[in-house]
Amino acid sequence: MIRFIRSIYFSERFFYALFAIAFFFLLSFWFGWLYPVNWVVSAILLILVFTELISLYRSNLLKAERILPEKFSNSDNNRVEVIIENKHVFKVFAKVIDEIPVQFQKRDFLKKLELPARDRVQFDYFLRPVQRGEYKFGGLNIYVCSILKLVKRRYIFDSEAMVKVYPSFAQMKKLDFLAMDQKISLHGIKRIRRIGHTMEFEQIKEYVRGDDARTINWKATAKQSSLMVNQFQDERSQPIYSVIDCGRVMKMPFEGLSLLDYAINSSLAFSNVALKKKDKVGLLSFSNKVDSLIKASSKLSQLNNIMEALYNVNTGFYDSDFSLLYSRLRKHIGHRSLLLLYTNFEHMSALNRQLPYLKALAKQHLLVVIFFENTELTRLNNIEPTNTSESAHQVIAEQFTHDKNLMVRELERHGIQALLTPPQKLSINTINKYLEIKARGLL
């Protein structure tokens, strides 16, 4: 009985009619003929209310379903589909209120629909998460009324739905598609000019203008009576590690995402491209301790292993221990590998403290230090100051920007590859750096 009562809601039209009847009862104090008329109108209103109640509660003639994907992609728009089926013999009007997970802090979701008799209606909406983890949906609330619009009946569906948010696999798939297509032309993705060639033989083909004359195969040329050249391909099965700093410097937010989330999304996208290139990929995350270490492998299951490991990576407020990173890499990674180190430095003093460990890593491996431009400082540098305070802020911003460029030059002076990138372009620039290294045969 209580459940039945809780599902009944009176609409605005019912209360407007109730207030009008009360007002006319007040007027009947001076105009006596209104008194019996008001009772007739009240009886009619009561009959209409009971008629609508009976029609709505005759049986459960409304079905609804919220269709969620198996998992959400972090920082991307994820589609949520809602299907509502009206089995009534008359048209109904519905208000849909979906209880979206608390992480979105969205409390104004409302969708108004007209549901034709014995018909199905579906609609969708999109959610953009900015944190990894479990997202729990509340009830899918649907308030239904007939054409009278005096009483509403509430239905609640799918009250225990949950979906996990993983690193951005949507971005990974997009960049995977571009990597498979050799005609990469998307804005921000550049083609890398090949300098020389690697020594992994692929095939013998007929010479065309532009081929390197040093690769002519004279024996094949003599047999075919036309110029034939050896074609080489990028060396494969090279070990590559994404090394992610999970210290407090990676907690800094940009456009709703932390630097750590940008690094995680980039690592997943890059690992997928490297696997398509037949290289071995691995992962290491660290802060004041080593959180996870996945040995480099080219197995098809490696991408799932990396995704599951990245799902649980979180940052705290600890200082990262680069000496521990060096000792752990030296112990567990014996072969020369490509290390993509995602970290961030805001001051030269911070870089100088870690430089001895970076130099030691660069002696054993090909190290690429990836850190971030502060896009807010870049925006501040591009505005025209209007007062002394803004001029002072701009001078400080220019100093910070200058320090970032000094860090790049300092790393390169010690033979360490460096990549300074805006957070939004991290994945594209990282893949470009990887393709450049492969093209130049540096590893």
From TrEMBL:
Keywords for this protein: Membrane, Transmembrane, Transmembrane helix
Name of the protein in question: DUF58 domain-containing protein
Source organism, top-level taxon: Bacteria
Organism: Christiangramia oceanisediminis
Pfam families (alphabetical): DUF58
DUF58 domain boundaries: 204-370
Keyword flag Transmembrane helix: yes
Stretches that traverse the bilayer: 14-33, 39-57
InterPro entries: DUF58 (IPR002881)
Keyword Membrane: yes
